[in-house]
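Journal club prep, notes for RB
We'll compare a predicted complex against what the paper describes. Inputs for the magnesium ion case:
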Amino acid sequence: MTETVVESTVETDVLLRVDDLKVHFPIKRGIIFDKTIGYVYAVDGVSLAIRRGETYGLVGESGCGKTTLGRAILRLVEPTGGVVDFDGTDVAGLKGEELRKSRRRMQMIFQDPLSSLDPRQSVESILTEGMRAHGLDKDKESTHERLRELLAAVGLPESALRKYPHEFSGGQRQRIGIARALAVEPDLIVADEPVSALDVSVQAQVVNLLEDLQEKLGLTYVVIAHDLAVVRHISDRIGVMYLGSLVEEATADALYEEPLHPYTRALLSAIPVPDPKVEDAREQILLAGDLPSPANPPSGCRFHTRCPWKQETRCSTERPELRELATGHRVACHFAEEIRDGQIQRHEVKAELVDEVAINPDVDLSGPASVSEVI
Ligand SMILES: Nc1ncnc2c1ncn2[C@@H]1O[C@H](COP(=O)(O)OP(=O)(O)OP(=O)(O)O)[C@@H](O)[C@H]1O
Ligand code: SF4
Ligand SMILES: [Mg+2]
């Protein structure tokens, strides 16, 4: 095959392409005049591509922008800048009927199954709502047949239709959330921490259900989690986020075998290993200080305030690009090769106090006046 053919095959295989996506929420003060005094840089320049049928895991600490990125992909929050291209169409430019159509093809499973299901609606009404909105509720009989199919697909009995969310356990409620997403026959599902609110004993069942459904229906997933252990087995590829950007992206195996970004190494070092011998030899990297505020992200490399490999002065002055170190393995660190090859050693990091008020000199404040939620 020639190079052009290979490239075009890869192109058509991509279902979702995100390019330099930004979501900046304005911080407003003032009683009479709503004055914008800064921005929360929740998502700040994310680029990634997800192939059809793939599961892409998105991990990072609380507040690093995972949910906002997921919502911006579905246009449940208006992006400040960048492109979300879904199956060849720029989602940002869609309006009215076109936007509604693309929304049907992208669905979200929410982190907290209880608060995302209306307690006053029966399961039947929850499941038919989306179908009706997208014109899939054609006649009573076929709708009922579809509801039965959906419940069977997520492992719930038909009697569930007449019940209300509070009558179910956490795991069952998440099954209802999954059925609601499936009801409109989507191609892409963004699952936002789909199991983190569930008991450990039912987490595996829900993960297995998601995997089975993917196989049966050819779904593409973005699975969000704050801990790498949850996404490891379900993901083909994983993106690690820190303060609004991707710092590393690789196949799940490559990321675990050879994490190249200091932040990923720290995240992985926090996962205990069952084998006591391996556990004793395990590299443990404790990160100094808390996650800085996304309203005042550090200059240069956003991780430099906590990085045990930080170098003077490039790390604090120049923002590293996400660059490919090995095929499909992208890292945003100026010194990734030197760290990998042991040419730069780890050092102690003193926790820095985060100044909430000061504005970062390298961020452009001429952003949008307002970002509206459009759920
Ligand atoms: N509607 C909003 N208005 C203003 N700020 C927001 C809004 N939504 C999120 N943020 C802020 O954006 C940042 C990223 O939030 P987000 O919920 O995307 O993080 P997350 O990675 O999903 O965190 P978690 O793991 O806790 O769910 C946070 O600082 C959050 O406070
Ligand atoms: S660029 Fe510098 S501060 Fe950032 S991760 Fe690499 S070594 Fe650490
Ligand atoms: Mg979240």
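Talking point for the session: The two ends are 45 Å apart (CA to CA).
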